[in-house]
Amino acid sequence: MEPVILACTRIWLIIISCLVIISIVGDVGVMSSSSTVAGLLSYQYYETSCPQVESIVTDKLTPILLSDPASSAALLRLLFHDCQVQGCDASLLLDSDTSEMSSSKNFAIRNRETIGIIKTAVDSVCPGTVSCSDILVLAARDAVAMSGGPKMKVLLGRKDSNTSNHTLADASLPAANTGVGEMLSIFTKRGMTVEESVAILGSHTLGVSHCVNIMDRFSRQIIGANRTPFETLLALRCAFGASISNSGTVGNDVTITKFDNQYYKDTSRGRGLLKIDSDMSTDPRTAPIVERFAQNQNEFFKEFTAAFLKLTSANVLTGHQGVVRTKCNAVN
Ligand code: HEM
Ligand SMILES: *[C@@H]1O[C@H](CO)[C@@H](O)[C@H](O)[C@H]1NC(C)=O
Ligand SMILES: *[C@@H]1O[C@H](CO)[C@@H](O)[C@H](O)[C@H]1NC(C)=O
């Protein structure tokens, strides 16, 4: 008798623990599917459908970045301008009409065709599988790493939009003279902390700005106020009509092809280029963080990684909300 009872007790224990496990797993399943959109993206999204995607992107991008080091900056800004409008959905790759005009917020956006080149390479191995928006995120991620920045893991599984809206883009992208308050409002809406907001601006460790976008740094000359030595330098650099012809550029920091914390060092010494770069070093909300990143590159990289994940996950299309475009610059 006794062994039978024991066996029955054990069976009941097993059944009960199985029920407990099922209910726990069930809860977790419900939680992950109904919480944030980032929950629908995954690090393994293409693990079975296109396991080579990350290496194809890196292989295609490496020679492009080696032959044109300025394209790292271009790709990172391209990503920001895509993600800022309606979530990262490659809509910016559809909208090619007015990017050369200085009145457009997408002024001087470059390297859109690079995403198309990588897409063709990816599609030759995994046809119709990987979205243009995921390729753009991977390319920007690689551009940061290859310039000496943090090596980041990114979530995948975004879908592309069927539409782009140039009016919406111009309304959603920050103006060249954006201040600290507006900047913080933009990025805290994306779920970023103040530290992460200051860190994502560290993207300005790469690339250049056109004179037309920094004129308010030295045009104080006109109203007779004193300029700082750096502003005098900028005025000279942008003199002789370069600011009017849109052709003149100035480096965003001293090391424009290196992803490092030089941007914060420059900014904290009064050598921030754009208004936002300069203001961040004096505004009490951001100045201590600028100082911290200037002292400690690891802190910057850590916060930048968290911020990049949030920038690239907010508001994205997943599942049947979007499509995998065949050509990145045209709807299917
Ligand atoms: C309030 C926020 C921001 C403002 C007001 C701003 C403004 C600007 C402006 C005016 C330029 C110069 C464009 C030109 O004249 O060619 C620029 C360049 C750049 N921005 Fe930003 N930006 C902001 C945030 C960001 C973010 C979040 C990123 C990346 C995630 C980013 C990445 C870049 C890069 C890499 C460049 C250099 C582009 C190149 O050299 O081709 N920016 N930004
Ligand atoms: C584009 O965006 C603008 C500004 O938000 C909006 O008024 C307009 O209706 C949008 N157009 C389309 C076709 O969705
Ligand atoms: C996008 O466009 C394609 C092709 O025109 C269409 O089949 C699809 O239903 C559209 N998807 C969405 C989400 O609008």
Q: What is the fold named in CATH at topology level of the domain at 52-207 and 252-313? A: Peroxidase, domain 1
The helix/strand series, from N terminus to C terminus, equals HHHHHHHHHEHHHEHHHH
Unique bound compounds: protoporphyrin IX containing FE, 2-acetamido-2-deoxy-beta-D-glucopyranose
Q: Indicate the overall shape.
A: globular
What is the CA–CA distance across the termini?
72 Å
Continuous helix count: 16
Percentage of residues assigned to helices: 40-55%
The residue-averaged pLDDT reads 86
In percent, how much strand structure appears in the residues? under 5%
Total strands: 2
In order across it, which strands form the biggest sheet? 1-2
What is the name of the CATH class of the domain at 52-207 and 252-313? Mainly Alpha
Major pleated sheet = 2 strands, antiparallel
Q: What is the CATH architecture assignment of the domain at 52-207 and 252-313?
A: Orthogonal Bundle
Which spans of ≥5 residues are poorly predicted at pLDDT below 50? Answer: 1-9, 13-36
| Radius of gyration, taken over Cα atoms and rounded to an integer in Å | 24 Å
Based on secondary structure, the structural category is mainly alpha
Written description of the protein model:
With 332 residues, the protein is an all-alpha fold. The protein has a domain of 218 residues: Peroxidase, domain 1, CATH 1.10.520.10. 53% of the residues lie in helices and 2% in strands. Strands 1-2 form a two-stranded antiparallel sheet. The longest helix is centred in the first third of the chain and has 33 residues. The N terminus is likely disordered. Bound molecules: protoporphyrin IX containing FE (HEM) and 2-acetamido-2-deoxy-beta-D-glucopyranose (NAG) (2 copies). The site of one 2-acetamido-2-deoxy-beta-D-glucopyranose has 5 residues, from loops. One 2-acetamido-2-deoxy-beta-D-glucopyranose binds next to loops.
